[in-house]
Amino acid sequence: MKVDTPDSASTISMTNTITITVEQDGIYEVNGARQDPVINLQMVTGSSKLRKQLRDSDELIICPGVYDGLSARIAINMGFKAMYMTGAGTTASRLGHADLGLAHLYDMRTNAEMIANLDPYGPPLIADMDHGYG
Question: Structure pTM?
Fold first, then answer.
């Protein structure tokens, strides 16, 4: 990798295939193509997405019960606007037992995080955290 840092611009070349030039004003070029320095991507929380759905529509929001990556992927691919992670489903799929209070906060939290992170820009997840662990 070669790095040149003249007063007006910085250039990074990698094996002569990609050249990125960054001007002092923040404008940059990739292989000579000028790029927009401002990309306005903003992460929106699942709770904000769900509140917006409820506020902006009178439509019933159907939330299928999901309990693992496969059931969540099916719900996402079918186009559901929200999902519900069941405590019983999580206990059964993670521990192989009925919902008898055997799952801990760690089990519920890691399962909810895994499901929510399958598609961070996708449907929000409502997670049943059993008895609250508090």
Answer: 0.65
